[in-house]
Amino acid sequence: MSVKLALYKAIKPVRDIDSFGAWIIRTWTSSPYSHCELVIAGFCYSCSIQDSGVRAKAINFDSGNWDFVELPWSDEAAVLSYFEKTKGRPYGWAALILRQVFNIRGSDKASFCSEWVMSALGVPDAGQYSPAGAANLCEWVNNIKR
Q1: CA-CA distances (angstroms) from residue 8 to 22, 93, 115?
Q2: C or N: which end of the chain has fewer Cβ atoms within 10 Å?
């Protein structure tokens, strides 16, 4: 099996707190992406605002609002092990704001999506990555591993 990075890029009108948060992330990072997941065998693993934290679930990718990056260098077993250690961890609004806005390390007891994804992949200092930053690093690793 393989691991893929899934990047959510829907640009919806701001109608609720979720779409407002997504708009802030896209604007702050100058990117089309507001969320990311790791996909293994049809299940998505991440830390989600909408699901209140770290979880696994099936997502329908037919909307066209997702881009994917294959991660042939990733360790599926390590990702699943990290998920087992962290499932149920709450979404980290404070960690997100502290790290992404003020570059201050947040709590290890809560995560945001790209921080969780990069930690699951074994990337050091995972909290520094936005969804777009995660995509850029993964694509860079793909290029040097060729």
Answers
A1: 10, 18, 15
A2: C
Per-residue pLDDT of the chain (146 residues), as tens digits, is 699 999 998 766 666 556 666 667 777 767 888 889 999 999 999 998 788 889 999 998 888 889 999 999 999 999 999 999 999 998 766 566 666 655 556 556 767 889 999 999 999 988 889 999 999 999 999 999 77
**DSSP structural state of residue 126:** G
Closest CA relative to residue 47, chosen from 89, 16, 99, 94: 89
List the domain range (segments joined by +) for residue 85: 3-145
Residue that is written with structure tokens 């407002």 in the block: 20
Question: For the chain, how many structural domains are there in total?
Answer: 1
Model's pTM, two decimal places?
Answer: 0.85
Query: Which value, in Å, is the radius of gyration of the alpha carbons in the chain?
Result: 14
